Amino acid sequence: MKERGLMQDKYIHQEFEEKWQQRWEAAGCFQWANDPAKEKYYVLEMFPYTSGRMHIGHVRNYTMGDILARMYRARGYDVLYPMGWDSFGLPAENAAITRNVHPRQFTEEAIKGMTSAMRRLGLSYDWNTELATCSPDYIRAQQILFIRMFEKGLVFPDTSFVNWCERCSTVLANEQAEGGKCWRCESSVIKKRVPQWFFNIRSYADELLDELDQLPDWPDSVKNIQRTWIGRSQGAEILFDIEGTNEPLPVFTTRPDTLCGCTFVVLAPEHNLLDRLDMTPEYRKRIETFRDEVLMQASEDRAKENLEKLGEFTGCFAVNPVNGERVPIWTANYVLMEYGTGAIMAVPAHDQRDFEFARQYGIPIRLVIAGEEMAPDQSLDEAYTGSGTMVNSGEFDGLPSEEGKKKVTAALEKKGKGQFSQQYRLQNWSVSRQRYWGNPIPIIHCESCGRGSRAGGSTARASS
User: Per-residue pLDDT averaged across 76-85, rounded?
Assistant: First the structure.
């Protein structure tokens, strides 16, 4: 290497890197100037977890961001390239417990060590813009955002089944519980209903979908993945009365034209209504045992087409709102809480999953959509899922199935038993996956006003 007329036979990285890093820092080469005469560019990478030391995966990831920042600086842009530390959460908490220290102490030591390593690598961050998510200033800003979102209805409390590790005493994300084992301690994971806070991201489902068309530089394959993930479906939400109660059972269907072919309804094993149905002790025991078994399975496995369809009868009945028929209420492994309302009207003649389930448990199968050259009383070897003419549907007989969708929905709306609806595969986001090392939820838990009350009548201030 030639420098100032001298030849060096070796690249002594400790000396060479340290020399130039000191010069870069003294000259402020990487500081964001906020120069109004320059075009701006912002490079933001995922903040690293502070759960240990840097490894080669960090080097690979953050080198890519560094290359991008340097390229735009070389092109004359005023580049903002900050570094932050994702310093709250389960990884830091578990690492601290393993080392028998407080998470704050462990986190501060981890940040110090990772900062030193990143500086030695020569990554071109503007260290004046460094932040840590566990710092008091950042916590305060996040709590203000949380309160404002709560006041707008974008944050709400609810209960749901979660992946629960008894040994770690905490909630796990799906990817942390693959194979039914905890990713940290390898203990068996169970499903447990717990109170949580959710962000209402479903409110943005349509916007997220529609704006994909405004991203011409994104690959079509990626946009199609996004569309599938959001999963918009159009149909009707139909209200079934439950015998012996005043509580309606809402179900979502994309085929309201097949409503007269509903011979049973099915609740997802996670459905809250299962806890409120008036079952006999015998039915209750069978349902709870079945639910515990099913909830050990991953949702992806339960959604597979070749899944063996299993279920249990609750001993309770619902009433079909279009023809007044009593239909039994079941719970089954193939119905997921993540889609629609977590309950379906099962039409075995026109849905293959329902068809397989009905065959297994001896439930009637009634044809209500006849394709060309199909008789109204024709027996089926598999579900007919195409369009056709409505049959065995009372006043709707003879209607084309597409027209029937509108007519049936309109009739339900007139009775106050249904309406047009859009549903999404996209789920609201839970934010409750640490024991204590996390940003406190700034909401008062008040016995008089209820969980999630706002302090002072207008704005929540206290932390739980």
Answer: 96
pLDDT of residue 351: 96
Model pTM score: 0.75
Q: How sure is the predictor about 4, in pLDDT bands with cuts at 50, 70 and 90?
A: low
d(CA 414, CA 241): 16
Q: Which tens digits make up the pLDDT trace of 307-329?
A: 899 999 999 999 999 999 999 99
**Phi-psi bin for 385: left (phi > 0), alpha (psi -120 to 50), beta?**
alpha
Cβ contacts of 263 within 8 Å, gap of 6 or more:
327, 346, 347, 348, 358, 363, 364, 365, 366
CA separation for the pair 129, 126 (Å, rounded): 6
Helices (H), 250-317: 281-294, 299-302
d(CA 368, CA 365): 10
In whole angstroms, what is the distance from residue 450 CA to residue 452 CA?
6
C-alpha atoms less than 13 angstroms from C-alpha of 108 in its C-beta half-sphere? 5
Tokens of 405: 């969708």
CA distance 361 to 349: 14
**In whole angstroms, how far apart are CA 230 and each of 57, 127, 295, 336, 420?**
30, 37, 23, 15, 19
Give 347-401 pLDDT, tens digit per residue.
Answer: 999 999 999 999 999 999 999 999 998 999 999 999 999 999 999 999 999 999 9
DSSP secondary structure of 83-128: -EEB-SSHHHHHHHHHHTS-HHHHHHHHHHHHHHHHHHHT----GG
pLDDT of residue 444: 83
> What's the rounded Cα separation, in Å, for the pair 127 and 143?
25
pLDDT at position 278, please? 93
> Maximum Cα–Cα distance for the chain, whole Å?
97
- The yes-or-no verdict on residue 288 having pLDDT over 90 is yes
Separation CA 258–CA 255 (nearest Å): 6
Supply 96's token pair.
């601290």
CB 378 within 8 A of CB 216: no
DSSP for 167-212?
Answer: TTTEEE-GGGSGGGB-TTT-PBEEEEEEEEEEE-GGGGHHHHHHGG
Q: Are strands 444-446 and 450-453 parallel, antiparallel or unpaired?
A: antiparallel
Of the candidates 432, 464, 448, the one whose C-alpha atom is nearest the C-alpha of residue 161 is 432
Query: Terminus-to-terminus CA distance in the chain, angstroms?
Result: 60
- Which distant-in-sequence residues (6+ apart) come within 8 Å of 161 by Cβ? 191, 192, 193, 270, 295, 337
Which stretches does DSSP call E strand in 320-403?
Answer: 326-332, 343-346, 369-370, 389-390
172 forms bridges with which residues in the sheet? Answer: 163
